[in-house]
Amino acid sequence: EDAVADRLFVQAMQLRRHQGDDIGVAENMLDVAGLRADGGKPEEAVRILRDALSQLQLKVGIRHPLAIDMLRSLCSLERNIDELDNAVRDCRASLALARELHGRDHRASIDANRQLAALYVDQGRYSEAETMFLEAYGWMRARLDPNHAEMARLYNSISIVAWERGDDQRALTFMQQAV
Fold first, then answer.
1. How far, in Å, are 86, 90, 146 from residue 38 at the CA level?
2. % helix, strand, coil for the chain, step of 5
3. How far apart are CA 46 and CA 75, in angstroms?
C-alpha cells in the first residue's frame, strides 16, 4: 500500500509541476517525505523536505504558511535521527515564522512552541522548556476542555519537566491531570 501511495503522490507532484502549481508541488513533496519517513527512510525524508523548502523559497518565498509545516516536519525527523542541533534550528525557524505570519496566539504558533519545548527537554534545558510549556498551557486552558487529549499531552510534558527538575509533588499533580 505504501508503494502505491508513494507512486501516486509522485505522479500528482509531476502533474502539478507540469501545470506550474508550485505550492501544490511543495505540498506533494511534504507528503512524499512523510511516506518515506513512515517507510523507515528518515534521512531521505529530510533530504526531500530540504529540497521542498528550497523550492518553496525559490518559487514563492519562505514566508508561506506551508513552510511552517515543512520546518516542523523537518524538526521532528531530525529529532528522531538524533540531529538535535538541526532540529532546534528548524523548530526555532518554524516558531518564528508561525508567529510572524499568524501571531503568538495562533494554534500554529502554540504547536511550534510545544515542539521546541520538547526538544529543550531532550537537551536538558528544563527551565526554557517549562516556560514554553506554561505559555502553551495558558493558551490551551482558555480554549480546550481540561480533559481534551491535547491538554493531557501538555500535562504530561509539564510533569516530565517537573520530575527532571526534582519537583516530585508538581510532577505528580500534573501527571494526575494527564490521566
1. 20, 20, 32
2. 85, 0, 15
3. 9
